[in-house]
Amino acid sequence: MAKPVQIEVWNPNGKYRVVSTKPMPGTRWINLLIEQDCRVEICTEKKTILSVEDILALIGDKCDGVIGQLTEDWGEVLFSALSRAGGKAFSNMAVGYNNVDVNAANKYGVAVGNTPGVLTETTAELAASLSLAAARRIVEADEFMRAGRYDGWLPNLFVGNLLKGQTVGVIGAGRIGSAYARMMVEGFKMNLIYFDLYQSTRLEKFVTAYGEFLKANGEAPVTWRRASSMDEVLREADVISLHPVLDKTTFHLVNKESLKAMKKDAILINCSRGPVIDEAALVDHLRDNPMFRVGLDVFEDEPYMKPGLADMKNAIIVPHIASASKWTREGMATLAALNVLGKIKGYPVWSDPNRVEPFLDENVSPPAASPSIVNAKALGNA
Ligand SMILES: NC(=O)C1=CN([C@@H]2O[C@H](COP(=O)(O)OP(=O)(O)OC[C@H]3O[C@@H](n4cnc5c(N)ncnc54)[C@H](O)[C@@H]3O)[C@@H](O)[C@H]2O)C=CC1
Ligand SMILES: O=C(O)C(=O)CO
Questions:
Q1: Residues 161, 285 within the same domain
Q2: CA–CA separation, 332 and 329 (whole Å)
Q3: Can you tell me which atom of ligand 1 is nearest the CA of 119?
Q4: Does the interface ipTM go beyond 0.95?
Q5: Of the listed 17, 182, 320, 329, which one is catalytic?
Q6: In terms of domains, do 261 and 365 share one?
Q7: CA 174 to ligand 1 centroid distance, Å
Q8: 297 CA: nearest ligand 1 atom
Q9: How many domains is the chain built from?
Q10: Domain of 42?
Q11: Catalytic hit among 273, 285, 293, 329
């Protein structure tokens, strides 16, 4: 028997029962659901990560849809329970959905939503922040000041790397990888090398045009190159940022061998998913190469870190906050709620998950569609 969990209820007489496994930022998402006759139940349990049993208890006997989090294990057990309870839709409040077994969802006819686009710039900005913080040793310097160790300017104090004219490498030049590349190229006049399974024509055009602009103004132009292998990026780039999806092809993409291929004083940033890096190998590499620096937002066994990582002065570590701006988090909540609502109401799936702006304008009603359903094709409603 699943144990009861604490909830907060909005619009108790609503016809459709929608459960959110966590309180989410803003109220627009709640209002949009209530306006369409949903009873909204929000889990207010104090524990951060809900177990499958907790979520089973939330789903109960009748549930039309669930908004869940990337920390939860959405597989066979939960999708079968949701389907038994009459549920049509689940949405992650995240763009990444490696915590979701989409095949299991397909088996039970449950739509799986995610929240692309609204977090692109916010996530890229955190990757850029970590790049700068690592290049200029900001966290080490901050700790030094707070410890009362500053006793005057010195020529060698916290000397770091100049980004201008160096090469930024992007692995996974999708929405976020491309946004990050543009920030680093335009903001710091870095040259770009990228690796992705697909060509990023828009990104290439952007760098070409910016290079021409610089040249016309008498400055050295920036350049771009699409690498034919990830190794090329690792060997050549001074700053490397990881932005692929997490799947079988990207698990431990950065491992002992690939770390060795990188420059001794390179900077590695990860705002994608922890398991893209073999974290134990990274700790060894950081220990053996004090000039090598890393900025991590995500960890292999979140919320834990591999032994030794927290002691590394050449690592900057933050707790999975890359999408944590107010506008973005409220927007993610809205998109997740509208994914679920759209399926409940029988709306079509939005035609382009890369263009979700119409759902985010608070001054107008959102389109009658689910913004992003990743298994729409498999369920026959693309
Ligand atoms: N740290 C955080 O808070 C956040 C993390 N993320 C992570 O970032 C990921 C990317 O998000 P978006 O840019 O919106 O997705 P996207 O789908 O636009 O981009 C992913 C890119 O990775 C590429 N890719 C896939 N396999 C690859 C491989 N083996 N080698 C090289 N490239 C490969 C794809 O072709 C695609 O261009 C998400 O799946 C999520 O896991 C996203 C938002 C916030
Ligand atoms: O959206 C995602 O995939 C995250 O990791 C959180 O924003």
A1: yes
A2: 5
A3: 43
A4: yes
A5: 320
A6: no
A7: 6
A8: 1
A9: 2
A10: 5-116+323-377
A11: 273
Active site annotation includes 140: no
Q: Could you tell me if the CB of 116 is within 6 A of ligand 1?
A: yes
Kindly give the number of the ligand 2 atom that is closest to the alpha carbon of 115.
1
pLDDT in tens, 233-280: 999 999 999 999 999 999 999 999 999 999 999 999 999 999 999 999
Query: Does the CB atom of residue 329 touch ligand 1 within 6 A?
Result: no
**329 in a labelled binding site:** no
Same domain, 44 and 168: no
How many Cβ atoms from other residues are within 10 Å of residue 319's Cβ? 11
Ligand 2 contact via 335 beta carbon (within 6 Å): no
Ligand whose nearest atom lies closest to the CA of 246 = 1
Length of the chain in terms of residues written: 382
* Ligand 2: centre distance to CA 282 (Å): 22
Contacts of 184 (CB under 8 A, 6+ apart): 128, 131, 163, 168, 190, 192, 239, 241
- The identity of residue 220, as a single letter, is A
Both 98 and 124 in one domain: the answer is: no
83 known member of a binding site: no
The per-residue pLDDT for range 109-151, each reduced to its tens digit, is 999 999 999 999 999 999 999 999 999 999 999 999 999 999 9
